[in-house]
Succinylglutamate desuccinylase
Amino acid sequence: MITTEPLSEALTDVSRQGDTAGVFTHIYEPDCQLAVWRRPLSAALTGYVDGLERHYHAINLRELLPADAVTDTLCARLPDLPGRDDFVADVQQLAEMFACLFELRRVGLRLASLQTAMCPRFHVDKVPCRLVTTYAGPGTHWLDREQRNQLLDSGGREPEQWQRLVAGEVALLKGDGWEDNDGQGLWHRSPPVPTGYRRLFLSLDFAE
């Protein structure tokens, strides 16, 4: 269960950030376009991710499934390295939180190891809301309202400054597909990945 928590963190004009998953409930506030759970990754999670990055480069899983089916699906698809149970349990927890928060019967799961940016330019998703987290490598870039306005006023020229998530943080990104949110969704982009490195990225979408 996700419960509302008092905000004890930096609050911007479009985001709410906190140290527990309770921060996710703020995504229902009309002016909140981004809710970030700031959390560290455990040693077991980091160890498993490091093993994946060293030995299994071709990870690109896409599934539409009930949240409670994530564990069986990932155990069947991911290599059995030390820490796998911890990693799978983490993804399972995030899927269940996402499904509970939005009353979803199924979620759209993507887990990918990336060498390049999927979406290198700032944009807004035409979806209600998306959960994203990076287990290794650089995190998603996003714009506050002032930076968004600068981008729009410049005719789409990439801004010189932006905000960024870090590995381990979990974020809900509200899109233009959210009811009564057209034109207000969060501007964001995939980060560049340094040569020789990979980014392990998870996203969850509505699948209804």
